[in-house]
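user: can you give me the structure for this one chain? tokens are fine.
assistant: on it. calling the predictor now.
[tool input]
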Amino acid sequence: MLPSLSSFKPSENYILAVDDSLDNLILLQTLLEDEGYEVELAGSGAEALQKMSERSPHLILLDVMMPQMDGYEVTRRVRQNPRFPFIPILLITAHDRSSVVEGLDNGADDFIRKPFDMEELLARVRSLLRLKHSIDEREAMLQQREDFVSRLTHDLRTPLVAADRMFHLMQSGSFGELPTDMLTALTSIIQNNQNLLSMVNMLLEVYRHDAGQKKLTFVACDLPALLQSVVEELSPLAEEKNLDLVIEFAPQGAEKALVEQVLGDQLELRRVFTNLIGNAIKFTDEGQVRVRVRSVADEAGADSTRWAVIDVMDTGPGIPPEDLAEVFQRFRQGNHRRAGSGLGLHLASRIVEAHRGSLTVQSEVDQGSCFTVKLPAANAVAIA
């Protein structure tokens, strides 16, 4: 159980005071330690950053005017360093409003002007420490929730896999021949169990990507072969609905070169395209689903970056404009009767981002949708 904000004591707070004046540092240290705070001193911006890398403070009291590295630069570096958690920064300045605005724009959370009133300083310290503990508590709760989801999906997956194997043994007659009506019911049970297992597996994959725990194996992937394989695998679903499922390769540019290889995790990329093409088939009742592969370059010249661009286009119902901005959010379910768990597109987006690519969508109601995957090329092969 997490402690309430009111339960935090000054002794549980570590404050880093930064100033090039030793007299100012001693004054701050005496004032804060008298209140029960643990205080560390730094005489320069560089020393402060070094101390922060060794131990993260709960609050930074930062003088603006310091030689070599001023308070603005220290603030920028703290905010730009992803290794640092959120640390409130209280700027101490003797200057005018414009310097305060610059400090706040660079990421500081509050300021106080010299000469400062002792009680006002302590009040601002308490306020920023409450903010720090509030954010830490929220992040801890989010982490607990993510850990719970991870454990839950693991615990659910084991009996679902065991049940799936048992059901298939029953279906194959391993435990004796079953009546026709029981086989029919068993087939439905197997399908429902597999759907649930698929959802649990997807939730687990989403957690791994969101938590940064997913390990990708990057190799040179034959993109046309990968896409052709996915299209062939999903063709029976399209045929059941009398849909045309086509794939076309459309090189663009002066050299007419098609990107044939991308550097990526083949299994994860397959998951992306299976989801996008499968969704297109699922939501399209008539017409076609078209997969178009093309190449683009950022700019002309030898140093230009070439990209493989894959468009998955359908003639389905389209996505309402108000839903487009949130279509890749986790657990975002559309209003369509066939809407799924809201995990597939979120997972596809995270996978593509992990490959330093992008996934975007364009859609018009009653006209269809086009999902576009853009991936950096491993190399390009000229075609006739």
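assistant: here you go. Residues 1-8, 380-384 have pLDDT under 50 and may be disordered. The two ends are 66 Å apart (CA to CA).
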